[in-house]
Design brief:
Strand content: 5-15%
Number of strands: 3
Order of helices and strands: HHHHHEEHE
Number of domains: 2
Shape: rod-shaped
Radius of gyration: 34 Å
Helix content: 55-70%
Length: 129
């Protein structure tokens, strides 16, 4: 970026000097035309590198807080499990998420058949304690 700005400044200074040295009207018009193309080229020259680079991807990744997205995902799973348990009549159940694993404390004792059915309903990633 600083190199680009230095290039623009250098071209402007050289252009001013050349224009001061050319007093002939015809030659002055020609020099101004060439000077305009050079200035345009210097200003536009970094665009191909910007278009090729993945700078926009890295900036987007910096803007997205992955921890926040993970926490929202875990909270969503926790809410879904809690709602399912309430629909099944386990109103006292405590649902906790630790390291992307959902732990469920039913607060009551149930038999093995009911536990197996509940585990199938809640799915993998849910540990019933």
């Amino acid at each position: 970026m600083t190199t680009w700005l230095a290039s623009i400044l250098g071209v402007v200074v050289v252009g001013i000097v050349v224009e001061l040295l050319t007093e002939n009207r015809r030659l002055g018009n020609f020099v101004r035309s060439i000077y305009g193309f050079v200035v345009l080229f210097v200003i536009v020259s970094p665009l191909p590198n910007l278009l090729k680079a993945d700078w926009w991807q890295s900036n987007a990744d910096d803007l997205i807080n992955t921890e926040l997205v993970t926490n929202l995902s875990q909270t969503s799973k926790q809410v879904k499990v809690t709602q399912t348990l309430r629909q099944l009549g386990y109103d006292q159940a405590i649902v906790t998420v630790v390291d992307n694993v959902i732990y469920v404390n039913l607060g009551v004792t149930i038999d093995a058949v009911s536990l197996s059915a509940l585990q199938n309903t809640l799915g993998k990633g849910v540990v019933i304690i």
